[in-house]
# Entry
Amino acid sequence: MKTLTQIDIDNFSATIRGRVVTDTDSDYDAVRSIWNDMIDRRPKLMVQCSGTADVVSCIKFIKESGINFSIRSGGHNIAGSSIRDDALMIDLSTMNSVFVDSKNRRAYVEPGALLGDVDHETQLYGLATSLGINSTTGVAGLTLGGGFGWISRKHGMTVDNLIAAQIVTADGESIRVSKDAHPDLFWAIRGGGGNFGIVTQFELQLHPVGPEVFCGLIALPFDSAKETLKKYREYTATLPDEMSIWAVIRKAPPLPFLPEEVHGKEVVIMAFLYIGDEESGAKLIEPVRKFAEPHGEFFGMMPYKAWQQIFDPLLTPGARNYWKSHNFERLNDEMLDVIVEYASKIPSSPCEIFIAQMGGYTSRQAITKTAYVHRKANYIMNVHARWDDSSEDELCIAWARAFFKSATPHAMGGAYVNFMTEEENERVPSAYGENYAKLTEIKEKYDPENIFNLNQNIKPK
Ligand SMILES: Cc1cc2nc3c(=O)[nH]c(=O)nc-3n(C[C@H](O)[C@H](O)[C@H](O)COP(=O)(O)OP(=O)(O)OC[C@H]3O[C@@H](n4cnc5c(N)ncnc54)[C@H](O)[C@@H]3O)c2cc1C
# Structure
């Protein structure tokens, strides 16, 4: 890398329509902060892009100067891959428009848009695309890694809904990719993460959803957790695509529908969404109410947009987070024992174990349809260690690691790249399984020098 002078930086800044932020700016700390408070890095320059031309200027400058860089959209990545010390951060959070073509059921989404921004615009027309469960997550990182949430069993992963994308390649060219244009690159970005270029627009398929859906939470006692999870396993295997039930095991937050004596105690929460009418939803959820005597419940018809934000208060930025994740085809009895064992020694109250129900439409797609490969996973488990004080780092990280290790013999072996931590780069080939070889070839074609390397990195062949 050549030594950058102030003149180099000024000349580069003159090519930018957005804003270049350095550590002399009063908002430097605000601009560099990301969701996971464990990550504290100091970029040299942060370019708040206002459009594709700024992104192209960044790539040209990076190639001329040799400066390292990172790409930031929603800033939610647990590994902190959107920020790097002494580097240039291409900050796309300022490009966050969402345009809905309701007639053709399409959304045109800029990379800085958050999930809530998309739901806000699409729900105006009673439409939605498949996105995640926390409204402040970035559409860009989520989509490029796969993307799943409450309506994935019915409408697929986010990558199944990607129709086309505008992408700035390692050559600094802005191209449109779709099934007819650069189909290899289009295939690779549907799961291959930020390895292939910088996406400046996503074109997403929309579906009629809501505006009200049947959804809610049922909190069940922890002392019968294993029996409850067995019933959960058997019952979820019978559900129609319209219904998704996730199991969340954690210490109960002080929710108004829970008796005070349960607050802060371990509970098994069944969280669900049904795309359909109240009567059918209520019938489908009735057996769940009988898994055990509930501590409390809260469900009914609710605006889809509100449900998409229901977990936001538990997932605010500013906390310390460390995640581990496994995929399961089936949750065997031994695995349920592991869950109960580690749930009973949760080290800090915001920690939780999330079991997302997959299957449905997502699992009926061919493994080679997109770079996202985990079509056979019926459950994705996220061991979510979360705490506030750095003095608890060791304790909470050790809990997540030990849990992950004990669960490994019962899991499928692959991993969802969007849930991988910094030190898991050796898991990347298994995260892509049989699609990995093809991904390395496409990487060789579009980014032979591996300039896009701050990610779950796919090496050029
Ligand atoms: C609280 C929380 C809840 C979550 N819930 C879900 C969920 O329900 N479902 C789910 O599927 N995932 C979920 N995730 C995981 C989420 O998908 C990833 O964290 C994802 O990386 C977030 O995207 P982002 O744009 O916010 O990330 P950023 O941190 O901004 O970016 C992450 C990486 O993505 C790449 N990238 C970002 N933007 C671009 C771009 N425009 N072009 C090319 N590469 C780019 C880069 O490599 C970058 O380093 C959740 C994460 C959190 C923290």
Q: What stands out?
A: The two ends are 24 Å apart (CA to CA). Residues 393-407 form the longest helix (15 residues). The chain has three domains: 6-91, 98-209, 212-423.
